[in-house]
């Protein structure tokens, strides 16, 4: 019996695969069994105990590199506000699927798994191989994706489809992220005699002011400019002492062409030698040319199905593509999925049912065109 993506998405939502703490195991086991039953060779790679990332493969008879889909099954906590429907019930109401992960991104995962299994049931012989990468730990730093990249177990890919929420519109680039903690040191003294000390809070505040007016000097046609957001600040011990310590964190959203090592050097120059800079995370962005031949079949299918020419677009956030694009040797990549970006991490998160159905149909057509109709050579 064919798999319906909406029904599968409901099943996936009913697994409370929260991250933190990292409860992907049961959901991953369910999908591993489903994919194995449909003929996929499934391998599991855990970056931590009970935190598996799945790689499911169908080989091709030709020499062409496989088509690849990816999506994550971890979801963020539900928050403290009441939900209209239970967040792990997977209820469909008035054309919308409700639940934590409905848009981000179990609907996308369900759509490409349903498409792949159904095509395989009809056409068990693929000219071009198909690889599905189903990750854990995306929400807290793409741990699962980076792990399989480090393990060098992905193999090649001709095109990577990231089924993150885009309302089924193609995204050809997204930013990276460099997150740092900057520490200022000073010398304590009585606050009635500030000239006797060195105020670390004032020093850190001056650095923040300099960062706010800094021009990073690069621009991307789809992503615009680099941005830097100060997200936390701590300093001092008591109200009547000159603070001898302060620190702040910064989330810098970077452009694909920016080298994060060089960016760190620029921060050291901007703040001066007294700044202590510690890297928390470093995720590169990606950018695929809209006219890349590998993306042409997808764009052709979008045009055939909608009659519209896809407008090139970029996204300010990052996805598992930060880890997988370099691991797949800078493969051409498009982010396109049925979820709605505006629904991510919200109370009453939902996804339109018609978009899930559209995504399943689009992915089905793409798999048929690249893996069945083409020679894969």
In short:
The chain is an alpha+beta fold and 377 residues long. 31% of the residues lie in helices and 23% in strands. The protein has helices at 5-13, 25-37, 102-122, 143-151, 200-212, 260-271, 296-306, 321-327, 353-373; strands at residues 41-46, 52-58, 67-72, 92-93, 96-98, 130-135, 159-162, 173-174, 176-185, 219-220, 224-225, 227-235, 245-254, 276-283, 286-287, 314-315, 333-335, 350-352.
SSE map:
Elements (H helix, E strand, L loop, with lengths): L4 H9 L11 H13 L3 E6 L5 E7 L8 E6 L19 E2 L2 E3 L3 H21 L7 E6 L7 H9 L7 E4 L10 E2 L1 E10 L14 H13 L6 E2 L3 E2 L1 E9 L9 E10 L5 H12 L4 E8 L2 E2 L8 H11 L7 E2 L5 H7 L5 E3 L14 E3 H21 L4
Helix pairs in contact: 1-3, 3-9, 4-8, 7-9
What's the quaternary structure here? single chain
Question: Could you tell me the strand content as a percent range?
Answer: 15-25%
Mean pLDDT value = 96
Globally, the shape reads: elongated
How much helix, percentage-wise, in residues? Answer: 25-40%
Instruction: Report the sheet with the most strands, covering strand number, pairing sense and barrel closure.
Output: 6 strands, mixed
Order of helices and strands: HHEEEEEHEHEEEHEEEEHEEHEHEEH
What's the β-strand tally?
Answer: 18
Rg: 23 Å
What strand line-up does the widest sheet have? 1-2-6-3-7-17
DSSP helix count?
Answer: 9
Structural class: alpha+beta
Low-pLDDT stretches: none
Terminal CA distance: 31 Å
